[in-house]
Amino acid sequence: MTEDVHLSAERLILREHVEHISPQEREWLDRHLENCPDCTRLAGATGQALQSLRAVSIPLPPALASRTQLRVYLRAQERRERERGGWVLWTSCGLSCAIGIASAPYVWRAFEWIGHRTGLPALAWQSGFAMWWALPALLAVAIVLIDRIEAKV
Amino acid sequence: MGATSFFSALMSDDTQALARGLRRRDPELLDGLIERYQYRLFRYLLYICGNRETAEDLFQETWVRVLDRGHQFDGKSKFETWLFTIARNLVIDMQRRKRPLSLDTLAETEQNPLQLADTNDPSPLNLVFAREEEASVQASLLGLPAIYREALLLRFQEDLKLEEIAAVLDAPLGTVKSRIYRGLQELRRLLEGGKA
């Protein structure tokens, strides 16, 4: 028998455990195994290796499930609190934006009046108005960023 | 409706219900899943990490991630496939934090991570034989590279289909088959060497 025949037999022996082999291949392999003690031993060893692999059992660490359940529970609680905090934050942001838009013409006039009264250059009081307008959004961004950094830690 | 399609529909409904529960972060569902998959997930992590303490940490981390990313489970695949994928990614992340490696090079194992479970066999002689046999399999398994150990576990202990293993490993089907064949050849060689 050539070496190729044994190699083909070994491939089929492995394949029959991993995938499927056709009835023709099965028939060929059976015929080959009848006349080849080396390949028969190989087939037996492969079957034995798989049986041993399936039989390996491992002990679980004590209370693994309950410790994990507790950790998951605490994490869920933390998430709920964060989500609640997030809802409050975005609602405040929304309200602040709405009030900001509604009051912008009046605040602009107020800043302008203060600018004239104090003799400030136009750029200074206009920057003050821009700051007043952007402050709530900047605060919200800062809170979200701090929250994310804390969550990662 | 045939029996097969009925059971398939039933299973699909189960998976869809599971996906909905995970989206809601249903605490009872999560508790049940942790109980149900504890052995399989811990065994998988232990096989690929080769260290009990690390496997235990990653086990907890995996469930925290299931809670955090439950909305990503679409219910189209099996839950265990998704679970093992999360666990595997955590192992790779951990390895990257330690040093820039992939799972392919993960080979460090502690001395005896796969401690044997107590068997209920009443015969002391059989117990000794069983323990010797298991110890030999253990040693052989630890002698295998992690990528082969993992492929063998998913195929022969988890009984996952080749396509499902490919999804967990994020690898082509051909690579999965080649890892299983090579792992099996190597395991057989190691076991024979142990008996010689």
Q: What's the β-strand tally of chain A?
A: 0
Task: Please state roughly what percent of the residues of chain A sit in beta strands, choosing from under 5%, 5-15%, 15-25%, 25-35%, 35-45% or over 45%.
Answer: under 5%
Q: Note the run of SSEs of chain B as H and E.
A: HHHHHHHH
Using the CA coordinates, give the radius of gyration of chain B: 18 Å
How would the global form of chain A be characterised?
Answer: elongated
Tell me, what's the shape of chain B?
A: globular
Counting helices, strands and paired strands, the structural category of chain B is mainly alpha
Query: What's the pLDDT, averaged over the residues of chain A?
Result: 87
**DSSP strand content of chain B:** under 5%
Count every helix of chain B, treating DSSP H or I runs of 4 or more residues as helices: 8
- Spell the H/E element sequence of chain A: HHHHH
Distance between the termini of chain B: 55 Å
The profile of the biggest β sheet of chain A is:
none
Mean pLDDT of chain B: 81
Number of helical stretches of at least 4 residues of chain A? 5
Stretches with pLDDT under 50, minimum 5 residues of chain A: none
Structural Rg of chain A: 38 Å
- Counting copies of identical and different chains, the oligomeric state is heterodimer
Say how many strands of chain B there are. Answer: 0
Class based on secondary structure composition and strand pairing of chain A: mainly alpha
